[in-house]
Amino acid sequence: MKKILVSTALLAGVLSYAGGFRVSLQGVKQLAMAHTSAHAEDASVAFFNPAGMSFIPSKLSIVAGGFGASNRITFQNRNTLQTTETDNPLGTPIYAAVTYRPLEKLTVGFSFTTPFGSTIEWPNDWEGKEMVQKLELKSYYFQPMVSYKFNDWLAFGASYIYAKGTVNWDRAVTQFGGQLNLDSDASGHGYGFGFYFRPDPKVDVSVAYRSPVDMKAKEGTATFKFPSTSIYPLLGLNSSGTDGFTATLPLVEEYTIGLTYKVTPKWLISADFNYHGWSRYNQLTLDFASAPLATGNPDPTVVVAPKNFRNAKTFRLGTQYAFSDMIYGRLGAYYDESPYSDDNFIPETPSFNTYVVTGGVGFKLKQFGVDIAGGYAMPQSRNVNNKTLGFYGQAKATAYYFGLGLSYNPF
């Protein structure tokens, strides 16, 4: 029975790393317009669709920016009515990109982004402490890319993705009066490609695909801390209470269709549809070096956990109005589906069906641009009913974002 309880706790934590969540903060200008993608004014288009680089007016374009992301999760126990809130630090996603056109029809570029990650911190003594106390997830995408413009209205682009990631997770092991930390680096590879169309000067169409990335953790470390070291041999641990593990942790694929229409020379409207392939999380396999944490398996060091995620969609609508050649106003709204049902809710990476409103302003000073954006999220409350983890109640959340972006288009 002890082995089963420890195994369940481990799976809860590492499942959260595999699930993670998609952070839609890769362009300040884009965020202000609901994070829509069919905008080819500067190098920020590179992450969304490498083909869009061919339509950037400037031969050389450089962008960089960062965000502040704040969120708070509240959980109320269904039986005791006790309420617990997270104390999460401010998240700081960043991005940078550069594009250059050495030939009339050929453009090359590089994009750096942080599209997956979070930090969530619950009180150390809360009722779900065996699932999570603190979890910090980070991911970094490095994407060299190229785009070829076939004619005035069509371009194709492709990118290679090299991803790095880390996880650091603390949770309690109350049956032994101890604590567990999981720490691991991971890396993976993927690709992206897309088509960018401009059939009319008033219309931009972006069609893009970003592949899944299998993040392979080859040298993970599980560290147990107990009042007595006599417990370590019971779990197959060494004298310092540590064990190694390996796992493949998938990040999701994404399909995007975007459209921008210039209603007038000063006013444009943009819309996006995103489709996220979360259903590839049907299970997660953890291979420990020596700890026999699985029961019923031929190899007790290999733990397999079911995970019933489902594909999810996002609908986005944004607009921009040019008050002058120097000042631009932007607004947007979008709806983002959660990738799992109430029966599969996990407190490590809480996810909600969410409505978000966004806005911002942009300033253009000759070759330089400055963009400011903000967003307010309205997650829909959830009736948590996770029988596997024995986790029941109601979960609510609030979140907001703000960002500052810079661009430089010298020639």
UniProtKB/TrEMBL annotation:
Keyword entries, A-Z: Cell outer membrane, Membrane, Signal, Transmembrane, Transmembrane beta strand
Membrane topology: Multi-pass membrane protein
Listed SUPFAM superfamilies: Porins (SSF56935)
Pfam families named among the record's database cross-references: Toluene_X
Cellular localisation: Cell outer membrane
Family named by the database record: Belongs to the OmpP1/FadL family.
Protein name (database record): Outer membrane protein transport protein
